[in-house]
Design brief:
Low-confidence stretches: 323-327
Distance between the termini: 40 Å
Helix content: 10-25%
Number of helices: 6
Mean pLDDT: 91
Number of domains: 2
Order of helices and strands: EEEEHEEHHEEHEHEEEEEHEEEEE
């Protein structure tokens, strides 16, 4: 079952809310021969998370099917990059599993003990059964918080984002589980901030999306995000402000980013193609609307361009604090 994005958290009788965790959605099948972990895209993740398969094997009886979010905690918050590293770790996988163990935050039960399919039961009953099932489970199998109190929701949105909670998912207690249907709602916590336009897809006269950056503590302009497609009005406005990079007297390229943009800069392990783009003089400040999934110096999801800020200097843009293990040289 999926969630449709909304601009406000819905309220009303019969609605409950859960934190939106920054991880991988995963269905776990407790088969007789052992657990099978399946991603939302249908990929078999079992071999990458031996810590989770062991926890399920020890605490969950055969026949059960669970739904939840796979996360890794590190330094008091979720670390999405640690999930990605599991897939590419190879022989280093056992060490990663020991040093940064994963957690499976559970929010639904699809098949109960003995293979009883309970998709048609209301969420309230499925939740009660899930809670009983997890009563003696190890800490790595955790029941997600749930509330109908909007004050609690506000507290999550205000204070839990630093721990990696992206927003809230809202559900109806009386609703059955409908695979593939967007019967839930998801609200993402968003921030308004600024970044520097370092490149565009398309052309300067007809920009399509923006490649954005911020200066770090060593005065290097680092790539931080890509925008959603621009509207016609936004593209027209920016075309009048953008310019090609300046050419120094020695004829070298005066731009801090390579062309095309390396695939590793996107931070997505499953996107191997470099990004073709048009370099621009990094002198225009953009106001953007972004979510809180900011990790290793980048926004993992695309940001929304709001407007140009010609009155702002590029030195007015917040500084990017250096992090270790960054993939940009």
């Amino acid at each position: 079952m999926l969630a449709a994005p909304v601009d406000i958290v819905p309220e009303g009788p019969g609605l409950v809310h859960e934190p939106k965790w920054d991880g991988w959605r995963m269905i776990a099948f407790r088969e007789t021969e052992g657990p099978y972990l399946q991603s939302r895209a249908g990929r078999n993740l079992s071999s990458y998370f031996p810590d989770i398969t062991q926890a399920i094997r020890s605490a969950v009886p055969p026949g059960v099917v669970l739904d939840g979010e796979l996360i890794v905690w590190e330094y008091g918050r979720t670390n999405f990059a640690q999930l990605q590293r599991r897939v590419t770790a190879g022989r280093d996988l056992p060490r990663l599993a020991r040093e940064c163990p994963a957690h499976y935050v559970l929010f639904d039960l699809l098949v109960d003990t003995g293979g009883q399919v309970i998709l048609n039961l209301p969420l309230s009953q499925r939740r009660a059964r899930l809670q009983r099932l997890l009563a003696d489970a190890p800490p790595q199998l955790t029941l997600t918080p749930q509330t109908g109190d909007m004050r609690q929701v506000s507290d999550w949105l205000l204070h839990w984002t630093v721990a990696g909670v992206e927003g809230v998912v809202s559900k109806r207690l009386a609703r059955r589980y409908e695979p593939g249907r967007r019967g839930w709602s998801k609200f993402r916590t968003r921030i308004v901030t600024e970044a520097i336009i370092g490149g565009v897809t398309g052309s300067i006269s007809r920009p399509e999306t923006l490649l954005l950056g911020r200066y770090d503590q060593r005065d290097r302009l680092r790539y931080t995000a890509r925008s959603h497609p621009l509207t016609i009005n936004q593209a027209t406005e920016l075309a009048a402000l953008l310019a090609p990079p300046r050419i120094p007297l020695d004829g070298s390229v005066a731009h801090p980013w390579p062309h095309p943009l390396p695939a590793s800069w996107s931070g997505q392990f499953d996107r191997s193609e470099p990004v073709a783009y048009t370099r621009v003089e990094p002198s225009v400040v953009a106001e953007i609307d972004a979510d809180v999934a900011f990790e290793h110096g980048r926004w993992r999801h695309r940001v929304r361009y709001a407007r140009a800020r010609p009155e702002m200097s590029i030195r007015d843009v917040p500084l990017l604090i250096e992090e270790q293990n960054t993939t940009q040289g």
